[in-house]
Amino acid sequence: xxxxxxxxxxxxxxxxxxxxxxxxxxxxxxxxxxxxxxxxxxxxxxxxxxxxxxxxxxxxxxxxxxxxxxxxxxxxxxxxxx
Length: 82
What we know:
Blueprint: H1 2-6, E1 13-15, E2 23-30, E3 33-40, E4 49-50, H2 51-66, E5 71-74, E6 80-81
Parallel strand pairs: 3-5, 4-6
Antiparallel strand pairs: 1-2, 2-3
């Protein structure tokens, strides 16, 4: 819900929700401008990242970079699991 609260109402589109659910990658609009949001999910693996979630985030960041989409990063990660 935090990501949906940050973005303009009704514009959040989460990508790959079932893959690496401990990190969320979302496209949406913030003040009318398209942005990408990367956010950790503390309800999965206690918010820790693993190699799968790191790959998911990296692919999303590369995609946003390729299309010139600015990023909003909301991450509080207590650790990294190999």
